[in-house]
Design brief:
The protein is α/β, with parallel strands linked by helices. The chain has 3 domains: 117 residues, Rossmann fold (3-Layer(aba) Sandwich); 68 residues, Dna Ligase, domain 1, CATH 3.30.1490; 50 residues, no CATH class. It contains 9 helices and 12 strands. It is globular, with a radius of gyration of 20 Å.
């Protein structure tokens, strides 16, 4: 890890309670990040609200804050510790959401804290359903028919245009929280009320359902020089659900058929958010 001379103290945000979408791998990644940064000579500050993790052991980071993972508390820590940089990506959705809030509220600028890893603009592009769809279309990637909605009435109209069944995906929620399938307007209203309430921006993607399709996943790591490597290939034994956490996942991929391989080689991969 090349050391940046302008960074001496780093704050790492944990993922908080272990739930679907914020699973144990974040604890492992956070622990390794703390140890790697310490090995390179950085002072490491960790904030995580979950005491039942390895990363919150006092030997892992130089300072450990067992505080709620909210804008108020992270802002307090930044103002008190004045770290040179913050690493939010280790905390999954929680860390990314907090980094976005800290940037929007001007806290990062106020404390002169650099955001290391994925920039705020890229976080927004990945998390905002409409921006993500537009990005995929701009590079020629096929996407499932979908519409962004901000109310139940808009969701009803979108579902009629797309055609039932549909899946509702609230924006900026942990691991698919609040999402669900709807096979009728009655089910859409039932799922939709909860989805809009749980989305912090009250935005819900209404998307054509592909429930029952085979789901194959690849995790790709890319750096700022556009070097990319596939670090993990996974297959879901059961068909597509609301979220990967709903399915039984096997890694590495073991049972691709010749038909599956042909689809992958032809790059006929539909991106599902």
């Amino acid at each position: 890890m090349p050391k940046r001379t302008d960074v001496k103290k780093v704050l790492i945000i944990g993922s908080g309670p272990i739930v679907i979408g914020q699973a144990a791998e974040f604890d492992y990644a956070g622990t390794q990040a703390c140890l790697a940064l310490k090995e390179e000579g950085y002072e490491v500050i960790l904030c995580n609200s979950n005491p039942a993790t390895i990363m919150t052991d006092t030997q892992i980071a130089d300072k450990v804050y067992m505080e709620p993972l909210t804008l108020e508390y992270i802002a307090r820590i930044l103002r008190y510790e004045r770290p040179d940089a913050i690493v939010p990506g280790i905390g999954g959705q929680t860390g990314l959401n907090l980094a976005t809030e800290l940037a929007k509220k001007g806290v990062l600028e106020e404390t002169r804290t650099k955001l290391l890893g994925t920039p705020v603009e890229s976080i927004a592009r990945a998390e905002d359903r409409e921006l993500f769809k537009e990005m995929c279309e701009s590079i020629g990637e096929p996407v499932i028919p979908s519409e962004i909605t901000y109310s139940i009435e808009e969701a009803k109209a979108a579902a009629l245009r797309i055609g039932y069944p549909v899946v509702l995906r609230p924006a900026f929620t942990l691991g698919g929280t609040g999402g669900g399938f709807a096979y009728s307007e009655e089910e859409l209203v039932e799922v939709g009320i909860n989805a809009f309430n749980l989305s912090p921006v009250h935005q819900v993607l209404v998307e054509k359902s592909v429930r029952g399709y085979k789901e194959i996943e690849f995790e790709v790591m890319r750096d700022s020089s556009d070097h990319a490597i596939t670090i993990c290939g996974m297959e879901n034994i059961d068909p597509v659900g609301v979220h990967t956490g709903d399915s039984l996942v096997v890694a590495p991929i073991l049972s691709l058929s010749s038909h599956d391989l042909k689809m992958l080689n032809d790059s006929a991969i539909t991106i599902i958010r």
